[in-house]
Amino acid sequence: MQRAIFAGGCFWCMVKPFDTQPGIISVLSGYTGGFKENPTYEEVKAGKTGHTEAVEIIFDPEVISFEELVTIYWQQTDPTDAFGQFEDRGSSYRPVIYYFNEEQQRIAEESKRQLQQSGLFKKEIVTKIEPAETFYPAELYHQAYYKKNPDNYKRNAQQRKEYIEDVWKEESL
Asked: Is the pLDDT higher at 48 or at 68?
């Protein structure tokens, strides 16, 4: 099994697109990239920890590759918005692909380069690609949120859903 960590705005909205794929063992909401140990949701949301909301994915590379995960990631975010995603604003919602090794770094950087050159976006792709840091699981009520709170999840994901439908239509990386 391998790990991947992606930050793309509200972690509630980042779970389902990965959780529903074959080869995914688990998707955990949490926090990474900051300076405070064991941060809480309220601390991260208030911008007091340097962390971003993220998802940690455990996957079987024999079934789904890191490259495929990166493709799914791009299609869930606005890679031209460095200061949040959709209605979620601030540094705790910044888009980042975290890598665990040189191969993941190479795949992420090449994918970002291809996306920039695709012409799909007129603005610069600003998603960061950074080394993975300690990942702190979020509180239990945040885990599998789309399953436990489908109505609230749907409301929170509406802007993202509309953006994805508008930008990606039938595009594929």
From this structure: 68
